[in-house]
Amino acid sequence: MSELTKLSKPIQQGNAVKAPTLDTLKQINLNAAGLDVGASEIYVCVPEGRDEQLVRVFETFTPDLRALADWLKQCQVTTVAMEATGVYWIPIFQILESYGFEVYLVNAYHIKNVRGKKTDILDCQWIQQLHTYGLLQASFRPNEQICALRSLVRHREMLLRCRASHIQHMQKALQQMNLQLTQVLSDITGATGLLILRAIVAGNHDPQQLAQYRHQNCTKSETDIAKALTGDYRPEHLFALQQALELYDCYSDKIQICEQHIEHQLAQLNPQLEHPLPFKKSRKRRKTKNQSASDLRQQLHQIAGVDLTAIDGLNVLTVQTILSEIGTDMSKWPTVKHFTSWLGLSPQNDKTGGKVVSSRTRKTTNRANLAFRQAAVSLKHSQSALGVFYRRMRAKLGTPKAVVAAAHKLARIVYNLLKYRVSYQALPPEQVDRQYQQRLLHRLQKQA
C-alpha cells in the first residue's frame, strides 16, 4: 500500500462522550440590577437607558435604602443581585424583598472578576452584567419564620459560648488558689460543683464543710473532695471567682429567656401535623446542662411532620439546629444529591486530563453541616445499624472520613423523611451486616 493511500484513509473517530448542551450567551434578566454592598455605602448599577446615571451610590441609613428601592422602581427593575458581605446585606435584602423585588444573594466566590483594577463601580457593573445573562445562582434562604427561628437558635449558641468562657475563668481562679476541684469533679458546674463554688464565694473555706456538699451520685468520696479543696485562698482570686460565677449565672438566666422565645417561635410556625400522631418514647438519655429546660420533641415532631429524634445520633438540640437552618420544605433541592452537595458532605470531584485529581469535600461554614457531623461522632458507641456503619467506615477510611460518610448518610435519611413524610424505620444491625457481606461477596465474585 502506497504512502498516498495511507494518508487518504479517513481518520478513525474516538469514543462518544456525553456532554451537556451549552446555550449561547443571551440576556435573560433584562430588568436586572447589581449591588455592591459595603458598611457605609452601596453602589447600584441599572441597565442602560433606564436613567441618566447607570451607577449611583447610596448610604446605608434606612431612609437611603428606601430611596434606593424607589429609584429601582423608577428604573423598572424587577430583580436584584448582591453578594453576601458579612451581615451588611441583611437590611437591604429585607427592604428590597418588602418592595417586591426578586433578590439574589450570591456567594462572593462565584462572582470573582478578572484580574485588574478593582473599584466599587466596576464591581456593581460586573454583578449586574452577570445577572443579566443569568450566570448567577441565588443562595438558599428559608422563609421569614424559619429565619426568625434560626436567629434565635444562633443567638442561644452564642450565649452558650460566652458562658463556657466564664467556666474557664472559674477554673483558672481555682487553679491559682491550688484548689484541685477539677480533678475530683468531672464538671464544676454540676450539682456538687456549684454548691461548693457558691459556698466558697460566701466565705466558707473549710475543706471538711465544703466536702459535705457532695452529691450522692458523685464517684469521689468526701475525703478526696476535702483534700482537693485544701489550698491557698487569696482575696484577689476569690474576687475573680465571684465575678466569673456571677457572669455564669447571668448567662444562664439569659439562656433560659432565649429558650422561652425559641419555644414561642416554634409555636408560631405552620405545623405539618394538625393533630400530632403518638410516637414511641425514645430511650432515656443522659441530660446535659446545655439542653433546653423544656422538652421540644413534641413541637419539633408537629412542625416537621416526622419524629427526627428517632434517628440514632440526633437529639432535640441537633434537630432544632437542623430545622432552623434548612426548614421543612425540601422542594428547594430537587434531589438528595443536591441537598448533600449544598451541605458540603459530598465529594467535590475535580477532573483534568481524564483523571480525578481531587475528591475532597469543600470547606464550608454551614451550621447544618456541623450539626450532622456532631451527630455522626455520637454514633461511635451506638449499637444501631448507623453505629455499625460508622465503625466500619472508621476502620476502613479513618476517623475524619468516617465522620463525613456517617454525616452524609444521616443527611440523606433526614431529607427523605422530610420530603416524603414517612416514619423512620431502623434496620437491625444483623440485617445490615448480612447485606454488607452479600455485597462484598458479589463484588469479589465479579472481580474473579
Keywords:
disordered N terminus, single chain, alpha/beta, five-stranded mixed beta sheet, two-stranded antiparallel ribbon, 448 residues, 17 helices
Q: What is this entry, summarized?
A:
The protein is built from 17 helices and 7 strands.
Describe this structure in words.
There is one protein chain. The chain is an alpha/beta fold and 448 residues long. Helices cover 51% and strands 7% of the residues. The chain is built from 17 helices and seven strands. The chain has helices spanning 3-8, 62-74, 89-98, 120-132, 144-176, 181-184, 191-202, 207-211, 222-228, 235-268, 297-304, 316-326, 336-343, 367-377, 385-397, 399-420, 429-447, and strands spanning 32-37, 41-45, 55-59, 79-83, 102-106, 350-352, 355-358. The strands form two sheets. The chain has a five-stranded mixed beta sheet with strand order 3-2-1-4-5. Strand 4 (79-83), helix 3 (89-98) and strand 5 form a beta-alpha-beta unit. Helix 13 (336-343) packs across helix 16 (399-420). The longest helix has 34 residues, at 235-268. The radius of gyration is 29 Å and the shape is globular.
Count every helix, treating DSSP H or I runs of 4 or more residues as helices: 17
Spans of at least 5 consecutive residues with low confidence: 1-12
Class by SSE composition:
alpha/beta
What topology, given as strand order, has the largest sheet? Answer: 3-2-1-4-5
Number of strands: 7
The first-to-last residue Cα distance is 44 Å
Q: Helicity range of the residues?
A: 40-55%
Strand content: 5-15%
Judging from the principal axes of the Cα atoms, what is the shape?
globular
Let me know the largest β-sheet.
Answer: 5 strands, mixed
Pattern of helices and strands = HEEEHEHEHHHHHHHHHHEEHHHH
Rg, nearest Å: 29 Å
Kindly state the mean pLDDT as a whole number?
87
